[in-house]
Amino acid sequence: MKYLRFFFLLIAFYSCTTPKNKISYTILSGTIKAPTSDSLYLYSHLNELERIITLDKEHHFRDTITGLEGYYYLIQNKRKAVEIFLKPAFDLDLVYDPEMTENVTFKGKGAVENNYLRSKVKIEQKLIQSLNQEEEREEKVVRLSNALENGHISHLNGVKDNIDKDFEYLETQRIDLSKRLRLASFKKKAMSKSNLAISDSFSDPFEGVGRLLENEKLLLLPNYLPYIVSNYIAQHYKCCYKGGDLYIWYIQTMDSLIQHPKIKDEAIFYWKNIMFPFLADVEEKEGIIKAIQPILSNIEYKQKLEEELKKLKKNRKGAVVEPFELYDENNNLISLQSLRGKLVYIDIWATWCGPCKKQIPHLEQLQKKFEGQDIYFVSISYNDNKKKWKKMVTEENMGGIQLFAPDSEIPFLKNLAINGIPRFVLLDKEGKILEAKAKSPSNPEIIPYLEQYLKREGTKE
């Protein structure tokens, strides 16, 4: 009987201590003032689209989100983003003006954490501006960096009694990493300039990095992988790079220095994603992927790399691109097939993209330079607002062939594996790829570059 009584007490204890109905989702709701579209985009801090949230006719939204925890970015106006922190059981309601993201306000469970993030931005703006202005002097960098760290710690301490403890821990680590990044940035600059010197008392931004390389929780922080990949790994270049393929060296160095399997996977995949937009050579990209594949343990990442290899094969010189049929500003349907017989120089752009718009005057000059020659200049508006696109094309009397892509999922665009815009593509007279990542209109070499291809294509006839 004594043991039976103990058994029932044990059951009662675990019944009381085991959480019931644990909430595994986050509720995100709110109102968008003067929205620029009927959708709200939720991106991870690694710039991956996690969710598209639809607004109703009154510009309200409500969504139940599962499987996400950490720092994310809400985007309505593509020029501005709002950082938010999500965690299961949070029930957030926000009011958001896409043109004035600094004034977003949160209510509900999780509001204290997210309002803290908004006020944190305002606190650091003045100090960061001062820090950038004085970055050539070590004592100023150290002083202002310490002031910024102390300001953030004081701000966090002011709300710590009312915030989630996991969030408090992450923010504490984030403050430390932010200081490390600022010091690492100055150190990197000093090492590359002969007129800058670092004193013996300058703090080592990589002190104790071993414990950081073993802390999986830090992967939730937006500044963790930039610190590890772009700073800690990069600083080994000066001492350890002995020549050969620099990209392969970088992969091997990450493999050697990062022992934690998940952190290694995330670091290598992050590095690949920030490098690829700057690489034009398809075979070079294929070589990098093949070097990465045996190292990764993450099955999902391995599958993504296989898909990327398939897309890259479609971007090789001589590959036939997927045909398209798109409408111009006058609602005429233009097909790629109708452009056969001439070279096709394609500009993939958007009205919201500042770098894209800077290329337009150079593109207009190219069109005049090659007028009457065997080349079409085609501009495809990508991931854009159709009304704004048509207005800009019409009012600014933009030349060439102006087309609008209704979405980024059309096969022609999807197979190009576009990581960023503007993106330029050069096709031959048969619709085959000459350059999947062609030179931009502002490139000083663009005219002889196109003349060379015109001459080469002309000799084939």
TrEMBL record:
Record keyword Cell membrane present: no
Pfam family, one: Redoxin
Signal peptide residue numbers: none
UniProt key word Disulfide bond: yes
Location(s), subcellular: Cell envelope
Organism (species): Aureispira anguillae
Keywords: Coiled coil, Cytochrome c-type biogenesis, Disulfide bond, Redox-active center
GO biological process: cytochrome complex assembly
GO molecular function list: oxidoreductase activity
Residue ranges occupied by any Thioredoxin domain in the UniProt entry: 315-455
Domain of life: Bacteria
Annotated coiled-coil segments of the chain: 295-322
Protein's UniProt name: TlpA family protein disulfide reductase
One cellular component term from this protein's GO annotations in UniProt: cell envelope
